[in-house]
């Protein structure tokens, strides 16, 4: 295994000289198919690049709770970038800390792909540089259709520089429009890595740790449908994920779910824990003892203690709402329930074969998910809640506000 | 596989230390990763070879260079590593051999004086033109190792745990080929050397 | 009480005796720039053979990390290490990023703050230029754990402080060397709480395997104590860097062999 590894590194070196041929040869050499799924991705590349563009690039990356609809037939090869940046963020009223993030928020951007899609993923560890992503909207030029397409959001004063903002994702635009974590750029150089649970690869290659200033690039194929967590896998994993390095990928099944035609709205909800204590400078910081003892200071939906009350999810009576719900942990379980509702269909882990019906509560371990359909019974207020009440009282609740039946 | 090899490695380290004697083979360290665009000739340290002559590495630019790191008191692994290097050297046509430089550089800057290195070269029957058994200041040796991706650390018994790596450099001092491990096939590395002799640069 | 959880006071008595003898012999200097770290042994968080702590021979160590001012003296003498002159093989483009192109602006970065944004190669060259070398990983860690604590709870408090530093360091407001109030019993200052420091062999043997595994932290824990938890974060972070990395948290100090006793050295007061 080690020998192969180094042969591949040498191949990687040759690649620097003759990229196209070697890549093609490598793919021929390494890839194989089983049951229509693709395995054997080429060796990851680790390199340094002078990249100072948008930290999140890709048409199908959105900010929670949004999910970008898949508007293409068949499969697609996605080029996705999610850089690691440090941001001081607010996670509850008056609670700010310097978060280690994928792309700028906690959790990071939602990536939406289809079963069978291939993703070429690039990630630069920019923990050692200030990356501003929170310019107010008035200072940005925004050209996009319905805010979901690739947008030109070049910050003012950046015109004519080499930075190409045209490829920035809908995520960045949404974050600027609705910056509920009130981002402030920060620096805290640390080694980091990326582990996509949606990818089936060797971790000692693709999930490699890279130092500040380094970039890693690798391919993975979304072989299985479902909602999958991604997170930093650099030890201490508990610390890195608690510091904010996690998010989700939604892999929609090739053949869809049986109720797809009936769904009126889709939302992505991520539950996670923070382990914070107040530091001397007023900012909060990681409380490793609380983390080790599984005693979170906050348990939240979509990264902020009150966001799903401040900005309730919306629906109308009689509508079928779909939740892509992931419990990103790092260490707790979630017993997801909606007060006043019963889940019509639940696909555990989001796989269409794992269908259950009529569930009151979905129990999810750390890094587990479910795709959930619920019919909104009548106009009114529905509380989304982790029915483990200790978690609920630390913040794991939200609101679905239903309008009248139409 | 990785975990298993790790556990084995730890076990080997443990047993060798516990027994307080040296099992060099089991102590082999993996070579680290490096960038292929880095030129060796940026390193401006002074090196002394087994003939007592001093060089800068850039003195060897323009032609292919084979670099191997070893130490004199290493009685099991290093002779094999040196013989691997000799095997590679021998695979170059006799007519071309004068174009090839071999630098065998010691980790053990305390014990491997030029005189000790000369004896070592003679004992290995490699006191031949084009071969330089060299030493330098410890910090320069450490820098070179870092550039090559050779890991080594001195153990309390005076021996070194180290990577086994033979590296071929092109005329500009860039890595053309790395051969990691003992008794590895050298055909590709030899091909690379022939190409460098022809074109100056790696394939 | 010594820090028994992580450190076996194997040679503690010998060390104290040696230090006392040496301090009697030494002429007292007001502000030693180096101190003698007498030989001894310790347990690291790395795997080791039971009953065989890591032995470290005597060496001299800088009392504080190298400062911006000291580093400027070095770059003035060695132009190849000036910002903009260093080839990519020796340092990333972040090298001395916080210095102005013409040199350090001390109004902004402070003369006596530790130099950062220096690669391993740069740190290695600096120490070589002053007749020293980078400390080995074991030397650095050995010195770092020569600390006295009143009780197990003060060990825990200290470890918590380290952890909070590792997870919330504010690199924009770094402090001067010697300002942390953290020092070992020989007077070596700020090994914690100011910057992280390069060591000669920062990727120790088996780093490849150790640094990449999620379970690493768990494997590094000794008796589940907080101090070794903080240490494991330090080991893992340090070994994950590349020798060309130049970041806001990485600086260094130099060590010296016994036969290279620096003129400015003294032993513990």
Task: Please provide a brief summary of the model.
The complex is a heterotrimer of chains A (406), B (203) and C (269). Chain B has helices spanning 2-18, 77-90, 114-123, 138-148, 187-199, and strands at 46-49, 54-56, 65-70, 101-106, 131-135, 152-154, 160-162, 165-169, 175-180.
Description of the structure:
- The complex is a heterotrimer of chains A (406), B (203) and C (269).
- With 406 residues, chain A is mostly beta strands.
- In chain A, 14% of the residues lie in helices and 37% in strands.
- Chain A is built from seven helices and 28 strands.
- In chain A, helix 1 packs antiparallel against helix 2 (19-30).
- Chain A starts with a helix and ends with a strand.
- With 203 residues, chain B is α+β, with helices and mostly antiparallel strands.
- Helix content of chain B is 32%, strand content 20%.
- Chain B has helices at 2-18, 77-90, 114-123, 138-148, 187-199, and strands spanning 46-49, 54-56, 65-70, 101-106, 131-135, 152-154, 160-162, 165-169, 175-180.
- A seven-stranded mixed β-sheet of chain B has the order 2-1-5-4-3-8-9, sandwiched between helices.
- Chain C is an alpha/beta fold and 269 residues long.
- Helices cover 32% and strands 8% of the residues of chain C.
- In chain C, helix 6 (152-168) packs parallel to helix 9 (226-239).
- Residues 1-30 of chain C have low confidence and may be disordered.
- The A-B interface holds A 1-3, 6, 9-10, 13-14, 16-17, 46-47, 204 and B 1-2, 5, 30-31, 33, 35-37, 175, 177-178, 180-181, 202-203.
């Amino acid at each position: 295994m080690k020998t192969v590894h180094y042969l591949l590194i040498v191949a990687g070196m040759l690649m620097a000289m003759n990229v196209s041929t070697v890549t093609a040869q490598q793919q021929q050499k390494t890839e194989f198919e089983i049951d229509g799924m693709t395995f054997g991705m080429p060796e990851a590349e680790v390199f340094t690049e002078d990249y100072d563009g948008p930290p999140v690039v890709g048409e199908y990356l959105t900010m929670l709770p949004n999910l970008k609809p898949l508007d293409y037939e068949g499969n697609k090869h996605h080029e996705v970038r999610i850089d690691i940046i440090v941001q001081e963020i607010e996670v509850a009223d008056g609670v700010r800390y310097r978060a280690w993030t994928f792309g700028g928020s906690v959790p990071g951007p939602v990536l939406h792909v289809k079963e069978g899609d291939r993703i070429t993923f690039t990630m630069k560890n920019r923990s050692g540089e200030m990356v501003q992503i929170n310019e107010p909207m008035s200072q940005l030029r925004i050209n996009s259709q319905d805010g979901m397409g690739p947008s030109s959001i070049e910050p003012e004063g950046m015109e004519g520089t080499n930075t190409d903002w045209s490829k920035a994702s809908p995520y960045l635009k949404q974050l600027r429009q609705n910056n509920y974590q009130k981002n402030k750029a920060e620096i805290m150089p640390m080694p980091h890595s990326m582990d996509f649970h949606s990818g089936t690869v060797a971790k000692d290659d693709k999930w490699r740790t890279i130092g500040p200033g380094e970039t890693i690039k690798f391919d993975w194929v979304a072989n299985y449908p479902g909602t999958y967590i991604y997170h930093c896998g650099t030890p201490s994993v508990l610390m890195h994920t608690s510091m904010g390095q996690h998010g989700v990928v939604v892999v929609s099944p090739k053949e869809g779910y049986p109720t797809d035609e009936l769904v009126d709205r889709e939302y992505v909800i991520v539950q996670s824990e923070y382990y914070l204590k107040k530091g001397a400078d007023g900012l909060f910081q990681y409380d490793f003892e609380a983390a080790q003892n599984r005693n979170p200071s906050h348990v939240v939906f979509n990264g902020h203690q009150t966001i799903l009350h401040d900005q309730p999810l919306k629906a109308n009576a009689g509508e079928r709402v779909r939740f892509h719900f992931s419990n990103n942990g790092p260490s707790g379980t979630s017993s997801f329930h909606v007060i006043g509702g019963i889940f019509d269909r639940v696909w555990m882990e989001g796989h269409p074969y794992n269908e259950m019906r009529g569930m009151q509560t979905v129990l999810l371990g750390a890094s587990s998910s479910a795709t959930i359909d619920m019919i909104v019974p009548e106009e009114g207020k529905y509380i989304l809640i982790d029915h483990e009440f200790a978690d609920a009282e630390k913040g794991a609740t939200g609101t679905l506000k239903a309008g009248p039946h139409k | 596989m990785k975990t298993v090899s790790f556990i084995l490695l730890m076990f080997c380290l443990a047993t060798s230390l516990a027994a307080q004697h040296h099992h060099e083979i089991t102590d082999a360290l993996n070579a680290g990763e490096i960038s292929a665009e880095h030129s060796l000739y940026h390193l401006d340290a002074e090196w002394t070879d087994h003939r007592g002559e001093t060089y800068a590495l850039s003195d060897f630019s323009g032609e292919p260079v084979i670099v191997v790191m070893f130490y004199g008191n290493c009685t099991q692994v290093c002779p094999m590593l040196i013989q691997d290097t000799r095997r590679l050297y021998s695979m170059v046509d006799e007519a071309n051999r004068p174009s090839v430089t071999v630098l065998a550089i010691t980790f053990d800057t305390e014990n491997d004086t030029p005189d000790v290195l000369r004896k070592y070269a003679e004992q290995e029957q490699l006191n031949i033109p084009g071969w330089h058994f060299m030493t330098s200041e410890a910090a320069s040796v450490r820098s070179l190792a870092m550039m090559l991706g050779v890991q080594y650390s001195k153990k309390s018994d005076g021996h070194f745990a180290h990577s086994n790596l033979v590296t071929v450099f092109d005329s500009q001092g860039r890595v053309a080929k790395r051969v990691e491990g003992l008794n590895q096939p050298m055909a590709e590395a030899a091909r690379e050397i022939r190409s460098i002799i022809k074109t100056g640069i790696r394939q | 009480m010594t820090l028994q959880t992580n450190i076996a006071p194997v040679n503690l008595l010998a060390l104290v005796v040696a230090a006392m003898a040496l301090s009697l012999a030494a002429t007292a200097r007001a502000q030693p720039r180096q101190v003698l770290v007498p030989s001894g042994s310790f347990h690291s968080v790395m795997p080791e053979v039971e009953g065989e702590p890591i032995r470290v021979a005597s060496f001299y160590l800088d009392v504080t990390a190298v400062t911006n001012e000291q580093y400027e003296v070095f770059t003035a003498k060695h132009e190849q290490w000036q910002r903009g002159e260093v080839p990519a093989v020796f340092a990333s483009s972040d090298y001395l990023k916080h210095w102005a192109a013409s040199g350090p602006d001390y109004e902004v970065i402070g003369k006596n703050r530790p130099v950062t944004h220096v690669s391993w190669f740069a740190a290695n060259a600096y120490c070589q230029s002053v007749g020293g070398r980078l400390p080995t990983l074991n030397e650095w860690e050995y010195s770092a754990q020569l600390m006295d604590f009143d009780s197990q709870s003060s060990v825990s408090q200290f470890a918590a402080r380290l952890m909070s530093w590792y997870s919330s360091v504010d690199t924009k407001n770094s402090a001067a060397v010697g300002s942390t109030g953290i020092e070992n019993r020989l007077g070596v200052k700020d090994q914690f709480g100011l910057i992280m420091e390069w060591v000669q062999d920062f990727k120790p043997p088996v780093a490849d395997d150790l640094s990449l595994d999620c379970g690493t932290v768990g494997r590094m824990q000794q008796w589940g104590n907080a101090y070794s938890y903080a240490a494991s974060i330090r080991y893992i972070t340090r070994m994950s860097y590349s020798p060309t990395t130049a970041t806001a948290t990485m600086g260094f100090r130099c060590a010296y062999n016994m036969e290279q006793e620096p003129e400015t050295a003294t032993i513990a007061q």
